[in-house]
Design a protein that fits this description.
CATH topology: Jelly Rolls
Helix content: under 10%
Shape: globular
Length: 292
């Protein structure tokens, strides 16, 4: 109830600024991300990451997400998963306040659908090949919720999904409370074939505390971390793009889906709405010795 009251208070403040919005509680005391030059060794190469982000959003200010960094994917066609929400570009579904980005899903008519939400993308405004990508976020846990922090290819060099790949830095479905998934999808390794490469970790209090979700992406591997603990490993086998399409530009996505093939397996708790995901920051650190 305290979080919901704080959400409504922030919503009211943003309304004063002339926006329709929903809000969420202030960030906890920020735990600093692992920075500095860190390295991994594989296939004989010593990979190092820079200590200064080459791209970031700290979500300072008040109002809509920074249009120089973020655009919106909009619509309600199910998004390949029979999802139930209509994604909008309205501040009622995504806004910045108190140093947080808040993405809110409402139980309200949107187009022909019963739910509205938002899906922010950095495509064309933040595109990266290799690096360390970290989000600090607090997640919803309502049954039917499906928050995600992830990456898709900007140019689809090898063709449409899954040929050009997907990197999921954080996914959580509300009916399986506390279990966070980190995954990659490729032509050779994806759930439609039963070959998906993924790992899971149970994260306590992911709805009441902020946690850090990260990938380290090099030409040799993708490693996933939660609060600096390595959870996921995926190696470049050297067999070509069907297994490793991750030698091209990717961009960032942040969204809050409702229902669908996965998250909707046990229905949707309509009494929990509105539901929201808060993002404290997103930071992308360079792979210092990345190939040209």
């Amino acid at each position: 109830m305290a979080r919901r009251n704080a959400l409504m208070a922030r919503w009211a403040r943003v309304l004063v600024l002339g926006l329709l919005a929903s809000g969420a509680a202030s960030a906890d005391e920020a735990a600093q991300p692992a920075q500095g030059t860190q390295a991994g060794t594989q296939a004989g190469t010593h990979w190092t990451f820079g200590s200064t982000p080459l791209w970031q959003d700290e979500f300072d200010g008040e109002g809509v997400p920074d249009p120089a960094r973020w655009s919106y994917d909009t619509g309600g066609h199910g998004w390949g998963n029979n999802e139930l929400q209509y994604y909008t570009d309205k501040p009622a579904n995504a806004f910045v306040s108190d140093g947080l980005l808040t993405i809110v899903a409402h139980r309200q008519r949107a187009g022909k659908l019963r739910y509205s939400s938002a899906r922010l993308v950095s495509r064309g405004k933040g595109d990266f090949r290799y690096g360390r990508v970290e989000f600090r976020a607090r997640l919803p846990v309502a049954r039917g919720s499906w928050p995600a922090l992830w990456m898709l290819p900007t140019d689809n060099k090898y063709g449409n999904w899954p040929r050009s790949g997907e990197i999921d830095i954080m996914e959580h479905v509300g009916f399986d409370r506390g279990v966070v998934h980190q995954t990659v999808h490729t032509q050779a390794y994806n759930h439609t074939k039963g070959t998906q490469r993924a790992a899971q970790k149970r994260v306590e209090e992911l709805d009441t505390k902020f946690h850090r979700y990260r990938v380290d992406w090099t030409p040799d591997y993708i490693h996933g971390y939660i609060d600096d603990e390595k959870v996921f490993e995926f190696a470049n086998e050297g067999t070509g793009p069907d297994a490793w399409p991750f030698d091209q530009r990717f961009h960032l996505l942040m969204n809050l889906a409702v229902g669908g093939n996965w998250a909707g397996q046990q229905g949707v708790d309509d009494e929990a709405f509105p539901i929201w995901m808060e993002v404290d920051y997103v930071r992308v650190y360079p792979l210092e010795n990345a190939p040209q």
